[in-house]
Each structure stands twice: as C-alpha cells, then as structure tokens.
Amino acid sequence: MTTGTFEKALLVIDIQENLVNPDSKLHIDITNLDQFFKNVNRTIDLFENSGLPVLYITNEWSNFLLNWVTGNVCRKGGKGVGPDPRLRRVNMKLYRKSTKSAFQNTQLLKDLQDWKVSEVFLVGLMAEHCVKATMLDALKNNFRVTVISDALGSKNEKNLRRSLEYYWNKGVTLIPAGVINDNKNRMTA
Q1: pTM, two decimal places
Q2: Which among 9, 17, 117, 124 has most CB atoms closer than 10 A?
Q3: Which CATH code fits 8-187?
C-alpha cells in the first residue's frame, strides 16, 4: 500500500452501505445524504491529489447478540457491511474493527506511526459513537486531530451538534470540507 513519510492522513470511518440505508435498523439521518457524500468524496480527492494516505475503516461485528439487536447491520461478512458504493475509493485497503474506535485495529496505529503521521483528519459515521471513540484514541496516541465537520453522519442533527461541541471542547480542530478544499497549502505532504 502506502510507503513513505507523511505528516497527515485521512481516516474514512464506517461509511458502510447498511449504515446509510434508511431501511436498515441502524442508520444515519439521511436528510443531507447527497451533500454528505459530496463532502466526503471531495475530501478524499484532496488527500489523494496531495499524495497523502486515505485509510478506510469498517465496523464488522461477530457478536451474536449485537448482530441480532441491530438486524445484522454490521455482521462480519454480511450483505451491505462493506463501504457504500457512493464512497470514492482510491485504494482497496480496509482496516476492520469490531468496536467503536478505529484504533482497535492495531495495524492502523502501526501504519500511522511507521509513516510518521502527526495529524489525522476524520470523516465518517457515527459522529456520536465511532468517530468520537476514534478521535479520543487519536488524542491519546498524541495525534493532532482535525474533523471535517460537514463530512460526518449521525443518528440525528441534535446528536451531530452535541458531538461537534464535544470535539471542540477536547481541543479538536473543526473545519468544513469547503474550507479544507480552499486551503490546499494546509495539505502539503
């Protein structure tokens, strides 16, 4: 996959088909789904065009009870558990996890450290769960964290606002996709 040294990396968290499907038992608020994908994909393009790593993370559960309660929305090997087809893929590498934090996959942390990454940018689902847990573990592992505020999905608008406020209070940088795309100097490798 990626080799070299990079200051920044983009983590694309849990943008899985079932989690953006309004017919599934556990999904995000789909009110602004088209804009969400536009912002995520624009951010992916910016990282790709800047020669920076784009890392995709999926949530896959083996726990029978958890799968039963959620209608198998993230059941390991299940239908619709992979990345949503509307998500721009610049590589096929997937970091799989079975808990909220992407850092549960120890290979992710190893790769970020090997590449000398000091700042992670976060987009994805769910702002109040997996993105939050990943943000906390990123801070714990001494990464600077920037969240693309309009490239997050949540159960509802209230949860999203609360999550963004929580991130801000933790010292995380919040920027919309349009700002990061307009400020390409910030993205130099």
Answers
A1: 0.90
A2: 124
A3: 3.40.50.850
